[in-house]
Structure formats: structure tokens, C-alpha cells
Amino acid sequence: MQQENKIYLSLLYDFYKDFLTERQQKIVELYVNEDLTLGEISQELGISRQGVFDSLRKAEITLKNFEEKLKLADKYYKSKSIIEEIIKRLKRVYEKYGDEEIMNIINSIQEWQENV
């Protein structure tokens, strides 16, 4: 699996992991978060490398299917991008006018964004 696909799988996992079986969750966590190879995962879990591959593939299909239907990750990252652009624009306005209320708004947005 390419690194980009691994990152995408990690993002989808953050949104939809509860829809996977416990075994699939463990395999995906070891693969994307611990960066273990299929062979290392098979040794750790005591299953065949092919079993790891099959479970990982099924988990990936499940995650992609949920994203295709719900688009939660897509909406989240689009919103995040829009918010970052708004903050950038507000900072320019603050630099131009020095209005502390604008800085308070920027700080409120950033605080909210950290908690989402």
C-alpha cells in the first residue's frame, strides 16, 4: 500500500473505525498507526500474513464505502480548509486595522477548531 493510501486509510479510520470488527480495528491500528508490516502484524496476532492482508483489505473497503456514502472526512477537511482561509483573511484585516475584536474572533475560531 502506498504511503498516500496509508494516510488516507488512517483518516477514514478516524471517522469510521467503530464500523469495523475488533480484529479489523486492531489490524488497521497496527498497520497505519504503528507502521507494522503485514508479516509483523501476522506474528503479533498469530494469524497468517494472508489473513492480515484479507482483513486489512476488507476494512479498507468498508471504510471507503462509508466515506462514499456519508462523506464525513471530505466535509471535515473542506470545512477545515475554509476555516483556515477565514483565519488568514481575518489576520490580514487585523494587521491593517489593529482592531482587538478581530483578534478575539480569530482566537475564538482557533480555540473552537482545536476542540472539534
TrEMBL record:
The record's InterPro entries line, in alphabetical order, gives: RNA_pol_sigma_r3/r4-like (IPR013324), UPF0122 (IPR007394), UPF0122_fam_protein (IPR054831), WH-like_DNA-bd_sf (IPR036388)
MF terms from GO for this chain are:
DNA binding
Q: Which residues fall in a coiled-coil region?
A: none
Keywords, A to Z, come to: DNA-binding
At the top level of its lineage, which domain of life is listed? Bacteria
Q: Which residues form the signal peptide?
A: none
Q: Give TM segment ranges.
A: none
Q: Does the keyword DNA-binding apply?
A: yes
Question: Which purpose does this protein serve, as stated in its record?
Answer: Might take part in the signal recognition particle (SRP) pathway. This is inferred from the conservation of its genetic proximity to ftsY/ffh. May be a regulatory protein.
Q: Its family?
A: Belongs to the UPF0122 family.
Protein name stated in the entry: UPF0122 protein OTK00_000967
Q: Which organism is it from?
A: Caldicellulosiruptor morganii
